Amino acid sequence: MPAANPAALEFLLTRRSRPAKSLTTPAPDRAALMPILTAGLRVPDHGKLEPWRLIVLERAALDRLATVAGARAQALALDPDRAAKGVGQFAQSPLCVAVIEVERPTDKVPALEQTYSAGAVCLSLVNAALAAGWGACWLSGWVAHDAGFGRAALGLTDGERVAGFIHIGTETSAPPERPRPDIAASVTWAE
């Protein structure tokens, strides 16, 4: 029987993302962030393609992205509430890691599996930050899906897109527990 890691299993059974609006400074500095980034990149990666890259957004970059989001929302004529969510995601964040999916041309690994790998990086970063004692959450929203914003704010090129924005900081309040999936409704046993 393999060696169990009860502490890791307990962490996974009780982990909860922290709402972005509950995160404040301090955020991890570069030295504290390195093990989180290292752990975050330990994900399934068929073909060892590394179909992702990370952009760490510190305060000045976050302020710049908030400004770009505001201008982009105006250009898209977004309703004020939707626009504010995109702007606020950066204006209020203590630190953010943008996970960028980078499609690698190959006949061996379907593009969808590369997308899955980039998504795994997002969850892995959140879990690593939480395990390190920080508050963290994975956000997307219109800013993640708008190619114009990606090009203007992050310098994305063809074949790149945002998989998620991982916000990390000091938790100011714990969210209430929420209902979790019903295992009986979600799992089928095949014998």
Structure report:
- This protein has 8 helices and 5 strands; from the N terminus they run αβαβααβαβααβα.
- The protein is of the alpha+beta class and 191 residues long.
- The chain has a domain at 17-57 and 95-173: NADH Oxidase.
- Strands 1, 2, 3, 4 and 5 form a 5-stranded antiparallel β-sheet that branches.
- α3 (59-75) runs antiparallel to α4 (80-91).
- The protein is globular and about 55 Å long.
- The two termini are 22 Å apart.
Features:
NADH Oxidase; 5 strands; single chain; alpha+beta; 191 residues
Which secondary structure elements does this structure contain, and how are they paired or packed?
Layout: H1 6-14, E1 23-24, H2 30-40, E2 52-57, H3 59-75, H4 80-91, E3 96-102, H5 111-131, E4 135-139, H6 142-145, H7 147-154, E5 160-171, H8 183-186
Antiparallel strand pairs: 1-5, 2-3, 3-5, 4-5
What's the CATH architecture of the domain at 17-57 and 95-173? 3-Layer(aba) Sandwich
> How do the helices and strands follow one another from N- to C-terminus?
HEHEHHEHEHHEH
Tell me the helix content.
40-55%
CATH class of the domain at 17-57 and 95-173: Alpha Beta
Low-confidence stretches: none
Query: What is the count of DSSP helices, taking H or I runs of 4+ residues?
Result: 8
Cα Rg: 18 Å
